[in-house]
Amino acid sequence: MSDNRNIRVAIILNAAAPAIMETDPLPINDALSLPLAEMVFRFTTGGGPGGQHVNKTATRVTLLFDVARSPSLDEPTRARLLDQLATRLDRRGVLHIDVHDSRSQWQNRSLAISRLQALLAGALEERAERRPTRPSRRAHQKRLDAKQRHSAVKRQRQQRWED
Asked: How many structural domains is the chain composed of?
């Protein structure tokens, strides 16, 4: 990854908010925070409408986070993330988040970070185990009665009347 486009930077979410430095932790949930130093930002020119501005400025942001080798993740957390995000990871276990919604590199960076937070928090969320249920006896009987009525209507339509 010695490409010039891979740049580790301090992130400024917006002009009114204080700057977030690489050493500041990025909160994911109550139990997990990740240092920004583990994230790699890649900047490229974005496509689509925008004319000269879009062709000259590198506003498209790709955030790379190495889930498989991150020192901040313990093994159970890493295993859960690798399992839950398997379709979004490349073969090396790196998560790519590509953002080109805005014409501003700063806004795209903050969007990429917020999407990473939401994605990781959602993957780490414990889901309640489904408890199988059965229909009640009354619901079962009601369904069978409806089937019989429908069958009777169809049978009645098939009757041939003799003149």
From this structure: 1
Residue 1 lies inside a defined structural domain of this protein? no
CATH of the domain at 95: 3.30.160.20
What's the domain range around 11? 6-124
Of residues 91 and 24, the one with the higher pLDDT is 91
Full-model pTM: 0.66
| pLDDT tens-digit series, residues 95-122 | 999 998 888 889 999 999 999 999 999 9
The whole-number pLDDT of residue 7 equals: 38
Residue 149 phi, psi (nearest 5): -60, -45
Residue 20 lies inside a defined structural domain of this protein: yes
Cα 42 to Cα 61: distance, rounded to the nearest angstrom: 6
User: What is the radius of gyration, based on Cα positions, of the chain?
Assistant: 27
Q: What is the DSSP string of 37-100?
A: GGEEEEEE---SS-THHHHHS--EEEEEEETTT-TTS-HHHHHHHHHHTGGGB-TTSEEEEEE-
- What is the reported pLDDT for 82? 94
What is the biggest distance separating any 2 CA atoms in the chain, rounded to whole angstroms? 94
Instruction: Kindly report the number of other CB atoms within 10 A of residue 61's CB atom.
Output: 25
Is residue 56, in this structure, part of any structural domain at all? yes
